[in-house]
Amino acid sequence: MKNPLNHPIFLLAFFTSSYFIIYYDRGVVAGVLSQVEEQFKLTKTQTGIIQGAFIGSYIVAAPLFAHFSHKFRPTRLMTVGLLIWCAASAAGGFANNFWTILVARLFIGAGESSLAGLAPTVIDDLVAVHAPKQRTAWIGIFYTAMPVGVASGYIAAGYITLIASWRWCFFTEAALMVPFAILCWWVNPPEQKRETLSDPHRIGLLSSIAALLKNSTFDLIVLGAAAYTFVIGAIAFWLPDYLVTVIKMTPDKANLGVGVTSFITGFGGTLLGGWILDRFGGSVGNQGISRAMKMCSILTLVALPFGVAGFFFTNPVYIFLCLGCAQMCLFIGQSPMSSAVLSCVPVDLRSMAMALCIFAIHLLGDMPSGTIVGLITDGLKDERLAMIILTSWLLFSVLFWFIAWWRTRNGDPINYESDIEFSPLKNMDDYDDEL
Question: Which ranges of 283-366 does DSSP label H, i.e. alpha helix?
Fold first, then answer.
């Protein structure tokens, strides 16, 4: 009898739900930010450091989880990471000063990286066998968890803090994740058996990274994604605080407004982006990567003026309208961008490619950007100017993705996907047999 836990629809729902809770935490942190600042007497710079430290541990742990996924069953590694996440989240609820919440966020980042780096390749394997013509759409469903999770975290934080301490936001999210962390131990997703350009059991960590860095298209996509994450990550972190301190909205209304806007644009935009790209030919091969990069560069260019304009208004309605238009454009590009990363590398290096992508986009993206916004705000005493400077950084995404589109439309890079023969599913119990 087939294990229902291995059904492709269940696996997609399971990993998407787990990823939702991961990003729910991001929204929660942003939603309680003003209260944590007030209770612990934090400067804007210290608040930014908390975000940077979280991302720092995340990007260090991600390549390690990816490397060991070739030796141990990936879902077992995810279980370990998610249990660390649960413990650290609960510890954040007990924090009593800057240093204790900083340490809790460090472990949150490390635990989260196990799921973020490994789950997309599992989804990609499922699509290759069960729905090859809907690849970007499936990946889009998975990535809806990011904006919808953040949006739900904003909204939940607003309501929870009306009836209880902000600490309960962390206690409740830890409780939500525990069943997923435990169930992940028994989830046994399939993997494709393939002949590719490299052997993950022989190639080392540094050799894998070097092989990926030699792929110029991968580099350009990731650099564009880093600039994108620089903006998106810092806005997600600072926007509720900006609305409370500059626009003088109440925390519950600010969180509700940001949450609803993010939910609508994130859910609709991410699904729409995957559907559009699949409708016009998908993301596989040179032409697929070219389509994805053209789409991302145009959408980001359209989003830029809306994003900047939003911070010139003082009326919340106009702010949410402008930022909503910008977010919609950016989220439509989320699925094509992620699919392009998976398409431009050898298939057996996808886990490492995702991990290296995570490392780079956070190292160059939302790890420094949160702190930079805090430094500019503390230095110039002008949070509005800091947010405008931040949003302008999207120009670099447009530049790098335009170059990637131009190169791939002329035949660069090698189409690794075309060299792969997909064979029947390989049960991941083979990992245990090899140990």
Answer: 285-310, 316-332, 334-343, 350-361
